[in-house]
Amino acid sequence: MDIHHRPITERIVWLHDLARRHTAEFRSPEACLARERYRALHPTAVMVLKCMDGRINIPVATHTPPGLIQPFRNLGGMFDLGWPHLGEVLAADVLRMVQAGRRVLILITYHFSRGDVHRGCAGFGYDQAAALAHCRDIRRQAEHIFGSGHDTVYPLICGFETDEDALLIHGRDGEILDLAEFAPEREAELPPRLSQLFPDMAEQMQVDLARLLKGNLRWIAQVRQTPRALDIEHREWMICLGRGFDFLHTPNLALIIGPYSPDLADPIRKAAGIIENNMRAGRIPDDGFLLYASVPFDEIGMDRARAELKSRFLADFAAGVISAEFPDLAARMHRQVAVLSWHSRELEVLAAT
User: Fold this and answer.
1) Is 198 part of a structural domain of the chain?
2) Percentage, residues of the chain above pLDDT 70
3) Strand 45-51 and strand 104-112: pairing?
């Protein structure tokens, strides 16, 4: 039976098993060596600003080892680099990469569906043009912070078509490289195409971006051989708040909200509305949903203790918003609080209610 239609208690047990398997795989010698080999061959650090929609999984869609691409998630991919917490976290991550001698590629993404506009981004009211305009605003902000010369940090607008998981790369002059129009055997055309689209991009960054795009070509070919009529519909039954949800690589499980916006209640409200609509439409059972808070830590001791308090706060805050505005849905809410070790990707559940 599909996991989306199982009772909520079985779904939660399945989720914990998924997290354990992800941790074991991440910590395996083969996976650790694969990440080190990848960094040696492709030193460009990649960060992605993206929507909370769980279908948008850039590492999977580019055949990139997990743990290498740094995600930032929020409703609709709506960000403002002036937000205090977001700006500080992004700048700190960029500085850490630069101090290690690495350049940084920031993918600023929007998403849509070619098959049905209502499988697109609910956060922007399914308005692809509005989402793209917002991406351009973020790119201008990134250039204000990191400079417009692009020698070290390159902000790049990237579309994500969710029916086939195809990337669309937006060039500086308005041209678009749509990977859905390529076949895997044409991947040799990608490097010269990137040189045309981004003449100001460092050569090594072009090489590393080309590798991501070649991986996407192979993934698109896989998707086209796999029936996924249900996978491209909204069937989320989890609201995840915080960071560290790389293990959720199964489509349409969760709506993931990063802790960045000063108005955190807004994406929580919208996520709760999507969950409620999924229940009403029969896409998921109406016996319950999971509110899951997770905060990562780098070091044991004070850093971990602070992560625990922050995770509990996020869960309590979200539960309060949902209880006030969706009382019927709140009665079916299961809550879990966790912290995550960045180094091992081990997820530790602190409380469940």
Assistant:
1) yes
2) 96
3) parallel
